[in-house]
Amino acid sequence: MSQYKSPLKYLIEFVVIVSGITASFWVEEYRESLQNIEEKLKVLNSLKIELDEIDLYCQERKAAFKKDSDIISYLISSEKNLYDSIEKLVETPFEIEVAVIDYRGFQPPMNRYNSIINEGTLKFVESDSIKQLLSQLNNTLISYLNANVGDEKIIQQKIGSYIIENYPEIIMSEKNTTLKNYYNILRAKINSDLNLKAYLKAKSRTMYVKNVFLDRYVETLVILRNEIERKL
Fold this sequence. Notes:
Helices cover 82% and strands 0% of the residues. It is mainly alpha-helical. The protein has one domain (7-231). Helix 1 (7-76) runs antiparallel to helix 4 (111-119), helix 5 packs antiparallel against helix 8 and helix 7 packs across helix 8 (194-231). The chain starts with 6 loop residues before the first helix and ends with a helix.
């Protein structure tokens, strides 16, 4: 028997080896592709769950923001006999006091999004549109909202200090009087004090802008959620 292989045998062995390597590469690539799809679906489902949670949170915040804003509007309005409107919004003087000398922040649930960013698994989502909307929602718009909350907080602190220094009876009477009496006392002080009214007017403006940005935030959230649902 000849000790040398024919060129045909060498060619066959070469083809077999190359075919094996190629097949192995294709199998590994396919397996990795399936794993990437699985990771992508996990990321998108996680984001979808969190967006649903944020939506519920935003509904609660929107209702609370509007309630506070309406209270301030009624208090500084030039119209008379607005107690009935206030009574439809609140049940206790404390709720009026919250609107006047407190503020409401905006901290939606973001643990899932932050984990995805920290773990680097957002890379499995190929959609540039989803990534852009995520950035807009969780970076741009939330920063605008919180900047406005910061502005409101500054004015709220000034209002609180001003009322304590000039009208401590308003603070002291909150737990010891009826809603109507508290409202009448506060309205009388506001109507007779241009500085206090101006402070509340400024607070009303920051509350209005906060609501505008919240609307934009919710609009973006809806668009993002729809994009994610289309990919699932």
